[in-house]
Amino acid sequence: MEPIDLLLPGGLLHAALLTVVICWAGRTGERSTLIGIRLWSTDSSTAAWQAGHRAALGWARAMLGVAAVSFAVGLALLEGVDDLPGSASVWHAVGTVAAFLACGALMVRRADQAAKQTLLAEYEETGEVPGARAGT
């Protein structure tokens, strides 16, 4: 492996760290107009926003774990193995991206589920559709 092969896991490590911070902040904070998990379900109410980000935090941490493990494996392959086939770095990159995207998809799915559960509970409690504008 070449040192350039660590660029992908290093970049994903930064992206995963940012995702964890966003989910951590969104789990208790107000809805943000700039960053966060932007789905119709999470944007419908502050409670749904918080529930979605709180639920997504576990998968965001999993993304961070995937990126960290990929970076560590890349370092080990870079330092420890001399006669690696050329396809090893390709499979390392493909596996990293596939696992990272799978965690990201599951994170968004879990956030959506939690936000919808919260919206349903709000509807059952108040009888009003959360996020609906008056007169529409």
Question: Key terms for this structure?
Answer:
membrane, elongated, 0% strand, transmembrane, transmembrane helix, 136 residues, SdpI family protein, mainly alpha
Describe this structure in words.
It comes from Nesterenkonia halobia. The mean pLDDT is 88. This protein has helices spanning 7-26, 46-80, 87-126. The protein is elongated and about 65 Å long. The protein has one domain. By secondary structure, the protein is mainly α. Helix 1 (7-26) packs antiparallel against helix 2 (46-80). 28% of the residues are buried.
What share of residues are in beta strands? under 5%
The count of strands amounts to 0
Low-confidence segments, given as residue ranges, are none
N to C succession of SSEs: HHH
Integer-rounded radius of gyration: 19 Å
Count of alpha/pi helices: 3
Distance between the termini: 59 Å
Summarize the structure.
This protein is mainly alpha-helical and 136 residues long.
List the helices and strands and how they pair.
Layout: H1 7-26, H2 46-80, H3 87-126
Keywords: Membrane, Transmembrane, Transmembrane helix
Protein name: SdpI family protein
Transmembrane segments: 6-25, 59-78, 90-108
